[in-house]
Amino acid sequence: MIFIEICVGSSCHLKGSEKIIHLFQTAIAEHKLENDVILSGSFCIGKCNQIGVTVQIDEDIFTGVTPEHFREFFEQNVLSRINKEI
Q1: Longest dimension (CA), the chain
Q2: Is the dihedral of CA 15, 7, 55, 82 positive or negative?
């Protein structure tokens, strides 16, 4: 099971956390990962960045997640973890 928290604090909200949440929901459904991923929101994770949204996957924190690079981010940081667990 992978735990994903998306920052929805004021800074990340202004940088598009709602769009990132939607992209995660869509990607999880497309890959049929509903039983492998827990997706939640989190108020400030404490790693604000000038660009993009902060996302925590398990214990790893990533800053600067943007819609433009979401697919690559998802493949590298979610799908690769799922494949390691199988």
Answers
A1: 37
A2: negative
